[in-house]
Backbone:
């Protein structure tokens, strides 16, 4: 009888563990929501160096 | 007990409001300091135009006034922290500065007939305002580079917190963290080094110009952080929900998200360290936005609209 009891206990343990693991897997998508997946666009930083500075002529203007 | 709940709710609302204010003030602080260099250039234009207006062509005084008005508007927009509005005004300013210089070149022809004494006086005045401009620019570059490094650090810190929250939810964020470390080393560190104590201020000029966390540095490194972070984040979330999505018959949708992310990555690799062209930006972000939209749809289905 003892091996049968051991087998039943082992089967119960395997079943229990696999259930816990299923629950863990199901927990993930339930916790990640739409807002976690939000993205922000890249900033166009603009290079102030491309702004023309006043040129200089021989008369100072 | 009811007043306790009211008090706690008020505390929560106040702390949320404070968080938003801090977030906005980062952008406003950064743009205000960044605008300083442009203020120097616009001041210089306005002063040179004024000299030309009082000696050669009075109609240029209107252009000088317009330049000063644009400067006031720039300061005001920078203070709001609105990057889009700032960029829009910057484009107008670029075009106005070019027009201003063209008008100055036309006026220059008339200056050839001025008496020598007037020319000498103009030269002296021009030399004085140029020296002011050079000093203004040097100081603005230094402050700008320093603020840029500080602002970038804050943005990376915020992204790190976002990655941390995802990690707590079971998402593998190793790629996100590696990306954050790389951005820190490639962009923030060189900026900080260039503005460290004892380093010549001239170094900050190159640093300010050459390191962009996003896009817009004409000749330097553009990291395209948001695109890279977005792709890595959406990929990590997709991987985390893939098994569950497949079991709910959403494997086709998952494959579509992955395909968009792969295309975005390929397009981004083509851009490399350069600044986006309009087409490149559209191509990369079109795929990211589609992946984002589809992933949100999958999450909503998995969570049965409860997200």
Residues:
């Amino acid at each position: 009888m003892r091996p049968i009891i051991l087998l039943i206990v082992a089967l119960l343990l395997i079943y229990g563990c696999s259930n816990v693991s299923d629950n863990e897997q199901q927990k993930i998508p339930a916790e990640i929501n739409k807002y976690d997946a939000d993205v922000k666009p890249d900033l166009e930083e603009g290079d102030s160096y491309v702004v023309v500075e006043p040129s200089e002529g021989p008369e100072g203007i | 007990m009811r007043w306790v709940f009211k008090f706690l709710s008020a505390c929560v609302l106040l702390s949320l409001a404070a968080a938003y204010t801090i977030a906005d003030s980062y952008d406003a602080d950064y743009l205000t300091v960044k605008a300083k260099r442009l203020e120097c250039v616009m001041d210089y234009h306005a002063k040179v135009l004024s000299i030309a207006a009082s000696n050669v062509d009075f109609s240029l005084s209107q252009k000088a006034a317009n330049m000063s008005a644009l400067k006031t508007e720039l300061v005001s927009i920078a203070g709001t922290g609105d990057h889009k509005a700032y960029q829009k005004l910057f484009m107008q300013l670029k075009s106005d500065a070019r027009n201003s210089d063209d008008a100055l070149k036309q006026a220059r022809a008339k200056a050839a007939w001025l008496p020598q004494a007037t020319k000498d006086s103009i030269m002296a005045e021009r030399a004085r305002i140029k020296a002011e401009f050079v000093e203004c620019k040097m100081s603005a570059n230094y402050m700008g580079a320093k603020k840029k490094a500080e602002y970038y650090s804050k943005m990376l810190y915020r992204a790190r917190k976002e990655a941390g929250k995802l990690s707590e939810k079971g998402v593998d964020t190793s790629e996100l963290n590696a990306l954050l470390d790389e951005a820190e080393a490639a962009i923030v560190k060189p900026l900080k080094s260039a503005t460290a104590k004892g380093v010549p201020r001239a170094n900050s000029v190159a640093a300010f110009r050459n390191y962009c966390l996003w896009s817009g540095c004409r000749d330097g490194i553009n990291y395209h952080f948001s695109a890279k972070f977005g792709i890595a984040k959406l990929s990590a979330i997709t991987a985390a929900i893939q098994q569950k999505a497949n079991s709910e018959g959403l494997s086709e949708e998952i494959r579509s998200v992955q395909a968009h992310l792969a295309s975005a990555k390929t397009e981004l690799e083509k851009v490399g360290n350069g600044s986006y062209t309009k087409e490149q930006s559209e191509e990369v972000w079109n795929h990211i936005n589609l992946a984002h939209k589809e992933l949100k749809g999958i999450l909503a289905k998995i969570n049965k609209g409860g997200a």
Notes: The two ends of chain B are 31 Å apart (CA to CA). Chain B has nine helices and two strands. Chain B touches chain A through 80 residues (CB under 8 Å). Chain B has a mean pLDDT of 90.
